[in-house]
Amino acid sequence: MTEFSIETQELKRCVLVILHGRIDSSKAPQVEAALKELIAADHYRMVIDMSGVEFVSSAFLRVLISTSKAVRRFNRGDVYLAAMPQRIRDVFDLAGLAPLFKLFDTQVEAVGSW
Questions:
Q1: 82-94: per-residue pLDDT in tens?
Q2: What's the rounded Cα separation, in Å, for the pair 12 and 23?
Q3: pTM
Q4: Is 60 helix (H, G, I), strand (E, B) or coil?
Q5: Residue pLDDT, tens place only, 30-70
Q6: CATH number, residue 53
Q7: Domain count within the chain
Q8: What are the residue ranges of helices labelled H in the chain?
Q9: Strand pairing partners for 81?
Q10: Domain containing residue 41
Q11: 9-30 residue pLDDT tens
Q12: CB of 92 within 8 A of CB of 29?
């Protein structure tokens, strides 16, 4: 089991957020705090690399939706999701969230799309 971690990298056109481990209801508030901190620092274009994510809870899905709404407000930015494992993508499809986000196969494609 991978230990939970959040890494952020400021790139030229966006901010890259790399998540690792299980994101359950106890970890979702940490992700939310990190994303809110980025928004507070005027970063509205985000790529979230989910290649290292093993599990997501409904609390994490709520965090993604609220973050997406916040950055899209006034057409300032968006949240792109990259390298999502198939089991996590299945959760997004099941919850009906896949159409709400731009999903990319690799981190490079997502960052390059900005």
A1: 999 999 999 999 9
A2: 28
A3: 0.91
A4: helix
A5: 999 999 999 999 999 999 999 999 999 999 999 999 999 99
A6: 3.30.750.24
A7: 1
A8: 28-40, 58-72, 86-95, 107-112
A9: 48, 103
A10: 5-112
A11: 999 999 999 999 999 999 999 9
A12: no
